[in-house]
Each structure stands twice: as C-alpha cells, then as structure tokens.
Amino acid sequence: LVFFADTTGGENGLFGIETLSFDPTVNYYVAFAVFLLALVVFVGITRSDAGEVLTAIREDEDAVVSVGLNPARYKLLAFVLSGAVGGLAGALYVSTYAQGVATPSETLGLVLSIELIVAAILGGMGTITGAAIGGLFFFLVRTWLRGVDVTIPVVGASVSELYFLIFAIVTL
What we know:
The longest helix is centred in the middle third of the chain and has 27 residues. β1 and β2 form a beta hairpin. By secondary structure, the chain is mainly alpha-helical. The N and C termini lie far apart (about 40 Å). α8 packs antiparallel against α9. It is about 70% helix and about 0% strand. The chain is built from nine helices and two strands. Strands 1-2 form a two-stranded antiparallel ribbon.
C-alpha cells in the first residue's frame, strides 16, 4: 500500500525535480551556507543549558531524572533537530548532487548510508565539529583517491580503479 503514489512516484521515486542550479559553484555555496548554518545552530545548542543536559543524559540518565528534569523532552529535541538537518541534507543532495532524480536506489543505497556513518565515526561521535571535520576528510580523501592514476605494481591496477577498497582500508 503506497500513499500518494501519484504525488511521490511510489516505489519508482520522483524524476525531474527542479534543482537549485546546474552550476556546481552555486550548488557548492548553497550547500556550504546550509552547512555553516547547521554547524552554528548545533554548536550553540551544545554550549547552552540544553547541551549540558544532553551530555548529562548521555553520561547518566538516572542522575538527570534525580534532579527533576525530564530526559524524554531533551531526547525529543535531539531527535527533531537531527531529523530536520537530515531532511534538509537529503533535499540538498537531491536538488544539487543527484541533479533532481530522487529514486530509492540513488538515495537509499547501502554505500551512501555506510559512508555517512563512517564519516561521523571518523570525526568523533561525541562532538559536533568532529563530525563535520570527519565528513570533510571523508569527501576530500575519497575524491583525491579517485583522481590518482598511479598503477599499483603487484595488483596491476591503478589507484583510481581500486579507490573504494583503498579508502575502506584507510578508514579502518
């Protein structure tokens, strides 16, 4: 049972979504502005009283309950914020990188999901700026490896052909 299949495209997804721009430079600046906005919001929340309560919940939820605070409210705040940023990132991904094609195979692929988790782990899961740096490192190293045309002597293949395997070994 698919709800609103005529609107959402059902299991086939959407095609021809209007993109922000076909100019990669404009797409970069839009994505970078959204990134900076999300970073500022999350750093602001982390350094506020709500951020201290979230850290206390991570360390010892029973202690937060014992001082009279409701951990469920703060967990809901964290869930809503992460969902909002995830939805915004998905919308930017489709309208810039995917060139307006929002198919399930493109947006729900296993490789993309693993890349997002690995990027967060590389930077440190307990920090805001660490995840941002991890994502930047992940993207830059992967892009650099794709462009290296040096042949590996033992294997007889170029680095750009085996970039995914090499990158997996580097991240491990």
